[in-house]
Design goal:
By secondary structure, the chain is α/β, with parallel strands linked by helices. The chain has helices spanning about 10-25, 30, 45-50, 80-85, 95-100, 105-115, 130-135, 135-145, 175-190, 210-215, 230-240; strands spanning about 1-5, 35, 60, 90, 120-125, 155-160, 195-200, 220-225. An eight-stranded parallel β-barrel has the order 1-2-3-4-5-6-7-8, surrounded by five helices. The longest helix is centred in the C-terminal third of the chain and has 17 residues, at about 175-190. Phosphoenolpyruvate binds next to strand 8.
Length: about 240
C-alpha cells in the first residue's frame, strides 16, 4: 500500500489536479494500492471526485477523536469520517504523539473508536533519535505496539516511521529497515492478530529510494509525506513497485 499523507497541506484545486493525475498515470491495479489521506476538510470532495473520475484509490483520515467523549468541541468521530468517504484512519503519528502529547490511553480510545466504526487503521510507531542512540529502539517499539493487543481491530497496518527520518531527508538505511521490520512482524504476529495487513515504512521516502525499500521482504508499503504532495513524484514512487 502507498499512503499519501498530505498532513496540513493542499487545496481543492490541488486535490482535483492530483486525482486527475493519478487517474492518467496509474492503472486500476496500482490505484487499488493507493491510499490518499488529505486534510479532513477535503475528504468529502475527494470522495466525490474519486466517483466522478472512476478511480480505484482509497481514502483515509489523518486523525480520529474517541466517540467515548461526547462533548468535544472540534471533535470528529469515526462515524463522521465514514460518512465522508473515509475507509482508513491514521492513528499514533509521531507528530500527534509529540505535539499533542497523545499517549497510550488516548490512542487506545482512538483505536476502539476506529474499530467500532469498521475503519481500517494505519497505526504509526517509531523511535526518536535519542532513543535510537541509547539502543532503545526495540523496547520503544514493543511498548508502542502493546495497545494493539487490547483492542479487536478490523484490518490494520503498522507504519514504522523512525521519528528522526520523518521530514528530515535522512531515510533509514536498508539493513536497518529490514532488521526492524522483521522484529515488528515477529512481535505483532505473536499476538496472532487477524486482519494484520503488514508493515509499511515511512520517513523521507522519494522515488530515488523507494525501489530499494520496497525490495525488502518485510516491507508491504510506504507512508509518504512530503513526496506525496507532487502527483508526479507520488506516481513515480508507486511505479517503482516491481511486485506487480
Ligand atoms: C510522514 O508524514 O509520516 C512522513 C513520513 O513524512 P516524510 O515522507 O515527509 O518524511
Amino acid at each position: 500500500m502507498f499512503i499519501a499523507n498530505w498532513k496540513m497541506n493542499g487545496s481543492l484545486t490541488m486535490l482535483e489536479e492530483w486525482l486527475k493525475g493519478v487517474g492518467k498515470t496509474l492503472n486500476k491495479s496500482l490505484q487499488k494500492q493507493c491510499l490518499l489521506c488529505p486534510p479532513v476538510c477535503f475528504l468529502s470532495e475527494a470522495s466525490n471526485l474519486i466517483s466522478k473520475l472512476n478511480l480505484s484509490i482509497s481514502l483515509g483520515a489523518q486523525n480520529i477523536d474517541p466517540s467515548s467523549i461526547s462533548s468535544l468541541t472540534g471533535g470528529i468521530d469515526g462515524s463522521m469520517l465514514r460518512s465522508i468517504g473515509s475507509e482508513f484512519v491514521i492513528i499514533g503519528h509521531s507528530e500527534r504523539r509529540d505535539i499533542f502529547k497523545e499517549g497510550d490511553s488516548l490512542l487506545l480510545e482512538k483505536l476502539k473508536s476506529a474499530s467500532e466504526e469498521g475503519l481500517k487503521v494505519v497505526f504509526c510507531i517509531g523511535e526518536s533519535l535519542s532513543e535510537k542512540e541509547q539502543n532503545q529502539t526495540l523496547n520503544i517499539l514493543r511498548q508502542q505496539l502493546k495497545i494493539i493487543k487490547k483492542v479487536e481491530l478490523n484490518e490494520f497496518m503498522i507504519a514504522y516511521e523512525p521519528v528522526w527520518a520523518i521530514g528530515t531527508g535522512n531515510t533509514a538505511n536498508i539493513d536497518y529497515i529490514d532488521k526492524i521490520h522483521k522484529e515488528i512482524i515477529d512481535e505483532v504476529t505473536s499476538y496472532q492478530k487477524e486482519g494484520f495487513l503488514g508493515i509499511c515504512y515511512g520517513g523521507s521516502v522519494d522515488s530515488s529510494i523507494s525501489k530499494d525499500i520496497l525490495s525488502i521482504k518485510g516491507v508491504q508499503g510506504l507512508l509518504i509525506g512530503g513526496a506525496s504532495l507532487e502527483c508526479e513524484e507520488f506516481c513515480n514512487i508507486v511505479l517503482t513497485n516491481n511486485r506487480n
